[in-house]
Amino acid sequence: MKEKKIHLLSAVLATGIMSFAGVLIETAMNVTFPTLIEQFGISTGMVQWVTTIYLLVISIMVPFSNYLLKNFSIRRLFVVANLFFIAGLVTDLWSPTFTILLVGRLLQGISTGIALPLMFHIILNFTPMHKRGTMMGVGTLTTSIAPAIGPTYGGIMTANLSWHAIFLFLLPVLAISLVIGLFAIPEMPVKKTGALDLISLIGIALLFSGLLLFLNQLGNWSSLISLVIGIVGLLIFYRQATRGKNPLVRITVLKNKAFVLFLCGFLVCQFLLLGISFVLPNFIQIVLGKDAFIAGLVMMPGAAVGAILAPISGRILDTFGSKKPILLGLSFAMVGWIALTLLLRSPLLLGFVAGHVFYMIGIGFSYSNLMTTGMNLLSEADYGDGNTLFNTLQQFSGAVATAIVATIINLAQQAQTDFIAATITGSQLSLLVLLGLLLAVFIACLIHFRKKPVLG
C-alpha cells in the first residue's frame, strides 16, 4: 500500500494558522486589561495572569509535546490541539467570572503548546535544507508578528463590540485551520520511542510555576517560598534530564555554545515582543487616556512591516548566510527600542508608531533567523530536543517578560501617589531592563560572527 505524503505548504499553513491564533490571543488580551480590572475589580498584578497562566501552560505543554510527537501521529495531535483551542474559545466567549476566563485560557494554552512544536516539527522534518530558512521565516511569522497584531485586533474588538468578541471571531479561523489540516496531514505511522518521564514533567511544572510566582510576588516574603519551589523543580528536571532513561528533553544540546547563543538571542527577542505588547497599549490607555482601539492601532504599522519581512529575511539567510540579517536586525531593533524608551517621557502617538516600526524591522530580520541558525547547528537526531528548547523557553520567556514588566509597573504605582507619573516611571524602567538584555545579545553575536565570519 502506497504511503500517503504530507502536503507540506498546506500542513504548515494549517498548523501555522492555529499557532498564529494562539500567539495572537496572547497580546490581544493585553489591551483589555484596564477594562478587565474595572469589570472584575482586580489589580494590575492580578490581571496579567490572563496572559501569564496561558504562557505557563504552554511552557509545560511544549516539552510534553516532544514526547507526544514521538508516540502519536501528527494528524491526531493536530486534531486534538484544534479541538482544545475551540473549547477554550467557547469557554472565554461565555466567561462570566475572572476564574472561568482563566480556565478558558488554560485550555487555549494546552492547544498552543501542542500546535507550535508541531508546526516546527513539520518544517524541520519535511523541508529540504536549502529551503529551510524561508519556511522557518513563514513559521516564525506566527510568533513574531502575531504579538504585534494582537493589540490592534483586541483593541478593535473591545472598543467596538466587547472583549468577549476577541474569542468569537477566532472560532471560524480555527475551523478553517481544521479543514486545511485534515486535507494536508495524512495519518502516518509512528514508531513509538520510550515512555513518558512524568517526573521530568513535574519538575518543569514546579520550575516554571515557582519562578513566575516569585516574579509576581516580588516585594513580599511569600516570594521566597515560590523561589524555593522553582529551584526544587529545576533540580528535579536537571537530574532526570541527565540521568533518566527517557527524559522529556535531552539538554546535551546546550553543550553547543553557538546554539546557546542563538537560543538566548531568540529568547530576548521574545522578551521584547511580549514586553512592548504589554507596556505600550496600557501606557497609551492609562497615561494618554486613549481607548483600546487607538492603543491597538498604534501597533498595526509595525506588525505589517514585520509580517512582510519575516519570510523575506529567511530567503536572505538561505542566500547570504546568517551574519548580515541577524546583526542588521538587532541594530535596527536597538534603535527603535531606545526611541520608544525615550518617548515615554514625551509621549507622542506618531512617535510611538515610528519607534515601533523601526523596532519591528529589526525583529523581522533577526527573529526567525536566530532560530534557524541555532537549529542548523544541530544534528538531525537533536532536532526534537532543540525544537522543544526553543519553543518551551520561548513561551516561558514571554510569560517572564509579561510578569517582569507588570511587576515593575505595579511596584512603581504602589510607591507613588501620582498614578499617571508612576505608570510612566514603571513603563520606562521596564523598557530599560529589556534594552540591557538586547544590548548584551547584540555584543555577543557581534563577537561570535567576528570569530566565524561565515555561518549558514
Automatic annotation (TrEMBL):
InterPro entries tied to this protein: MFS (IPR011701), MFS_dom (IPR020846), MFS_trans_sf (IPR036259)
Bilayer topology annotation: Multi-pass membrane protein
Major facilitator superfamily (MFS) profile domain boundaries: 7-448
Chief location bin: membrane
PROSITE patterns attached to this UniProt entry: MFS
Record's keyword terms, sorted: Membrane, Transmembrane, Transmembrane helix, Transport
Gene3D superfamilies, A to Z: MFS general substrate transporter like domains, Multidrug resistance protein D
Organism superkingdom: Bacteria
GO MF: transmembrane transporter activity
GO cellular component, one term: plasma membrane
Localization: Cell membrane
Residue ranges crossing the lipid bilayer per the database entry: 45-65, 77-94, 106-124, 136-156, 162-183, 195-215, 221-238, 259-280, 292-314, 326-343, 349-367, 388-409, 429-449
Keyword flag Membrane: yes
PANTHER family from the UniProt entry: LINCOMYCIN RESISTANCE PROTEIN LMRB, MAJOR FACILITATOR SUPERFAMILY MULTIDRUG TRANSPORTER MFSC
Protein known as: MFS transporter
